[in-house]
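Hey, can you fold this?
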Amino acid sequence: LFALSNHAATIIQNTGGNFVAFEAEENVQLTPGAPTSFTITNDVTPSGNQALFASGANNTTFPTSFASYAIKFSTPGTYKVFFRWRANEDFTGDPNAANSFHAPIRFGASTNGALNPNPDYTISTVKNTRVKPESHTYHVDPENTSLLAVSQAQVDAGTPLIFTIGTREAGMMFDRFVLTLDSSLTE
């Protein structure tokens, strides 16, 4: 059973909506890990002046820390994941650094940081698509491998589904997530 922390609330999709959007640093349950761990950090450039941040050192083989969100959907369908992110310039000595995470392939993905490999995740398709200095500013990108299905039975049950991402590269910062039925979303 997944329990949210006392600072996390369930994200509710509007009735009849075709998307759900939320701040990455709000209503989140963080599962710490090493050598890379999600934290909330101050950042003046995103909305809300904070961001979800992958701190520590890289572990590109499998996720060691997780950020989970409980979402109650009102509309069934296959949702595509979009996210607004940037690379922290302190981590981009290598121009291809701080630009990937482990994307879930299903709702309710495991938060066991000892699973190597973890079959519930894949490497994000945004990896190495933008390099410094462009990667130092926030942009919206799609996650092309995360097509997450919500059934009518799940909507009818009214039980929140758990959306979880995992760490991969230290220095990646997230501002917002959008799960949408519209696969052509742009910034």
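Oh, and this one too while you're at it.
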Amino acid sequence: MSRMSVCKLSLPLVIAVWGVAGVACGVEHDVTLKDYPRLAGERDDTARLQRAVDATGDLGVLFIPRGEYAVSSTIQVTNGASLLLHKGATVRAIAKMDYLFNFDLSHTGCWAWGGTLKEGHPHDQGMFFKGGHLDGNGLASCLRLNRFFHFTMRDVIFVNGFPRGLHVGGSGCELVADNLYFRTLKSGLAGNVALFTEGSDSYYSNIVVVDYTTGLRVRGGSNAFIHCHVWGGAVPPKKPGGIPEMLENSVCFDLGGGMNVLRDCYADTGVIGYKVYGASQQIVGSWFLNNVNFGLKDILAVKQDAGSENLLVADCSFRGSGMGSRV
């Protein structure tokens, strides 16, 4: 069947489908950044990105094409827009700011948990941020998500986020996060955290973290982390003969909150593999490995802090490689 025959619809039906969802005949977005160029006097892409987001609105999808986009202040997403980035799109901070993108959805109908639906706002449980590279450039955290209710984040690369790559706020639940990649490429960012979540009832899968001082820091509850791999050592030492910069005081998984589950995760070289706070935490079918080539000593595979109770560690393998590792 030809493409023409697949999309052959009567004119009234085409108008109806386009008006409601904007997805007729394979169209995947409502607004494209291509239609919002820089205006006279604008030296970066901050204002055009904000104009495009503002034009998208409830239930809408903004597409950001391939290219590099310089941002000098935070892009605020408060109107219920979803963002779809080409895999070759990079949004990079060029000035100090809190976040490249700040999703705060308290003013939209999607925020119903603990709040009230506002007249004229649909209850959108399908919002998303997908694709692209977010480069904090050591000047900003890459993205903050707050006051959300069932939100999808997928196929995003977070580079050089400082102090965080992704911050999931506590006023939200049911994030579905998959295939996220975090990488520090610059020196001077020690102490950063790749993924810091205060949210609850969420699902994180296929997460890879390379060279953030703390890989995953969890302070929310009832979250599941599956197939998450944290490792470090690529950023060189600050002084010759030292350990790699991001491995100083490093923690692969910093598990606070309560009733969180780590399953099939991999702590690959850190001063502490799994640091556990809170109650009723589970680490199941997971690994710890120390790469002796990086020179770490006095290593803790699992550290349970005072006040933590009902910790389950089952079906795990810990390899200290002869460097005096402890559990």
